[in-house]
C-alpha cells in the first residue's frame, strides 16, 4: 500500500463512491478503502441475515419471511427523481449501464388524517379530493405559471420577481389555500419544513418544476420517482465498478485504517505499518473524529409486511409524505415502500420504512403517525442514526468530509452534497448537461 495517490477515499457509502467514480473519470489516481467487508457503508442494502445480525444480535429470521438472499433492505431508503441530479450523474458517468430501474407506482401525501395520491396527470387532478373545484382552478393557474417559467426569459415571469418575492407572497398572488400550500411545498417541492415560506420563491418554483419535468420524463409515469432493482446497494457498487474501470484501487475489510496528518494537513492514511500518501482525503464523518458535529438525529423504522400499504391502490412502491403541520411536528415524516417486485424482499413481501428527524427523547413514539398507515407488520426494526456534517470545507486540512444522510426519501439533498464536495475538491462545477436523459430506461 506504500504508494502515492491523487486522492484517497474512505468509506463505500453512496456519496463516497460517486466522488471516487467522478475523480477516476477525471483521470485521478484513486485509492478507495473501507473498514467493512461490504459496499455501501451507512447506505448499504442488507440481506435478511445481515439485518438480523444488526438489529437482533444474529438471531435467526422466521422461516415465513423466505430466503435471506431474496432481501436487499436499504439502510437509507430513497427514490430518485426521474429528471433529478442523481440520474444526471448516472448518465454523465455512464454508470446507468450497470443498473436497471423500475418506475415508482405513486407519490402520496397525508392531509387531514387521510392518505391522498398526488395527482400525476390532468385527469387525476380533476378527481383529486386534495382540493375543491374552485381551488383546482386557482392551482391550475399556479402550476401553468411554474411550468412555463424560465429564468432566462423575462416574459415568462409575468412581472413577478421571484428572487425578491417570498413563497408566501407567491401563494397569496394565486390565492392558494393553506392546505394546497402544504402539499405543494412538501409533496412537490419536497421541503422538509416550512422555513421556505419566508425565503425567496425562485428555488421552490424550480423544485416544483423539477417534480413536473420528472413526472413527464417517461410516458405513463404514475410518480416522478425511479428505483433500482435489487435495492440502493447497487448504486455504490456501480460507481465502484466505474472507478475500477478507470484505474481506481479498492480495499475492503480494513478495520484499522486511519487518516495520517502532518502539520494539521491530511497527507494520506495508515493501516498498521502500511502507509499510502495522497494530496487529499475524502470520506464519511466516521473516519474524521473531531472534525464533524452532530446536527440532528434520524429515527427510522423498517417493517417487513405481507401486504401493500393500505389506501395506496395495492402499489408495489410508494412514497408518502406527512407534512409537519399534519402531525403537529417541526419537520416532515416520510414513508417509503417497495416490494418483491423490485427484488428487495421475499416473494409476496413488502418493505416499508418510516423516517423523520428526531424531536423528542422518545424516537419510536415520534414515528406513530407513519407507522399507523402501514397496517399489520410481520417484523419491525427501529434505529436512531446521528446526522453529522463537517466543521470545515476541506481547504485548510485537505479533508473533504460528506454530510450524513437525512430523513428524506428522495436523493436531491444527497446529490447536492456530492456536487458541493466535487466543487470544493476540484475547484469547478460538474457539468451535468452533456447527456440525454432518455438513455435511462425504466421497466
Helix proportion? 25-40%
Distance between the termini: 43 Å
Just name the CATH architecture of the domain at 4-55 and 229-293 and 388-430.
3-Layer(bba) Sandwich
The gross shape turns out to be globular
Major sheet strand order: 9-8-17-18-19-16-20
CATH homologous superfamily of the domain at 4-55 and 229-293 and 388-430?
Answer: FAD/NAD(P)-binding domain
How is the quaternary structure best described?
single chain
Report the sheet with the most strands, covering strand number, pairing sense and barrel closure. Answer: 7 strands, mixed
Task: Give the percentage of residues in beta strands.
Answer: 15-25%
Question: What's the pLDDT, averaged over the residues?
Answer: 93
Low-confidence blocks of residues: none
Look at the helices and sheets and give the structural class: alpha/beta
CATH first level of the domain at 4-55 and 229-293 and 388-430: which class? Answer: Alpha Beta
Q: Rounded to an integer, what's the Rg over CA atoms?
A: 22 Å
Per the CATH scheme, the topology name of the domain at 4-55 and 229-293 and 388-430 is: FAD/NAD(P)-binding domain
Amino acid at each position: 500500500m506504500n504508494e502515492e495517490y491523487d486522492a484517497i477515499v474512505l468509506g463505500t457509502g453512496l456519496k463516497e463512491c460517486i466522488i471516487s467514480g467522478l475523480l477516476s473519470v477525471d483521470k485521478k489516481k484513486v485509492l478507495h478503502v473501507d473498514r467493512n467487508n461490504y459496499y455501501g457503508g451507512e447506505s448499504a442494502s442488507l440481506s435478511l441475515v445481515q439485518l438480523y445480525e444488526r438489529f437482533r444480535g444474529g438471531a435467526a429470521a422466521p422461516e415465513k419471511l423466505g430466503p435471506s438472499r431474496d432481501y436487499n433492505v436499504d439502510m437509507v431508503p430513497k427514490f430518485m427523481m426521474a429528471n433529478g441530479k442523481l440520474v444526471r450523474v448516472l448518465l454523465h458517468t455512464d454508470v446507468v449501464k450497470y443498473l436497471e430501474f423500475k418506475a415508482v407506482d405513486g407519490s402520496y401525501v397525508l392531509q387531514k388524517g387521510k392518505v391522498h395520491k398526488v395527482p400525476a396527470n390532468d385527469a387525476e387532478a380533476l378527481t383529486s379530493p386534495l382540493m375543491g373545484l374552485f381551488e383546482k382552478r386557482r392551482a391550475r393557474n399556479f402550476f401553468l405559471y411554474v411550468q412555463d417559467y424560465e429564468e432566462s426569459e423575462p416574459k415568462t415571469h409575468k412581472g413577478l420577481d421571484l428572487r425578491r418575492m417570498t413563497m408566501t407572497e407567491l401563494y397569496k398572488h394565486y390565492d392558494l389555500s393553506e392546505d394546497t400550500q402544504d402539499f405543494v411545498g412538501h409533496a412537490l417541492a419536497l421541503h422538509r419544513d416550512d422555513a421556505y415560506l419566508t425565503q425567496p420563491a425562485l428555488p421552490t418554483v424550480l423544485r416544483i418544476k423539477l417534480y413536473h419535468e420528472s413526472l413527464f420524463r417517461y410516458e405513463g409515469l404514475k410518480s416522478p420517482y425511479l428505483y433500482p432493482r435489487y435495492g440502493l446497494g447497487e448504486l455504490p457498487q456501480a460507481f465502484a465498478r466505474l472507478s475500477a474501470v478507470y484505474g481506481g484501487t479498492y480495499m475492503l475489510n480494513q478495520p484499522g485504517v486511519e487518516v495520517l496528518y502532518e502539520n494539521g494537513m491530511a497527507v494520506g492514511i495508515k493501516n498498521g505499518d502500511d502507509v499510502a500518501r495522497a494530496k487529499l482525503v475524502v470520506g464519511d464523518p466516521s473516519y474524521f473524529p473531531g472534525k464533524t458535529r452532530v446536527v440532528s438525529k434520524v429515527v427510522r423504522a423498517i417493517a417487513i409486511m405481507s401486504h401493500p400499504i393500505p389506501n395506496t391502490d395495492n402499489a408495489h412502491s410508494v412514497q408518502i409524505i406527512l407534512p409537519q403541520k399534519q402531525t403537529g411536528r417541526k419537520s416532515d415524516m416520510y414513508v417509503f415502500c417497495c416490494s418483491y417486485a423490485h427484488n428487495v424482499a421475499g416473494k409476496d413481501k413488502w418493505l416499508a420504512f418510516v423516517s423523520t428527524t428526531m424531536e423528542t427523547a422518545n424516537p419510536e413514539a415520534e414515528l406513530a403517525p407513519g407507522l399507523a398507515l402501514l397496517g399489520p407488520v410481520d417484523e419491525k426494526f427501529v434505529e436512531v442514526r446521528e446526522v453529522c456534517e463537517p466543521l470545515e470545507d476541506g481547504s485548510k486540512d485537505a479533508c473533504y468530509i460528506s454530510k450524513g444522510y437525512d430523513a428524506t426519501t428522495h436523493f436531491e439533498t444527497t446529490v447536492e452534497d456530492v456536487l458541493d464536495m466535487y466543487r470544493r475538491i476540484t475547484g469547478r462545477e460538474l457539468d451535468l448537461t452533456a447527456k440525454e436523459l432518455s438513455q435511462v430506461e425504466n421497466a
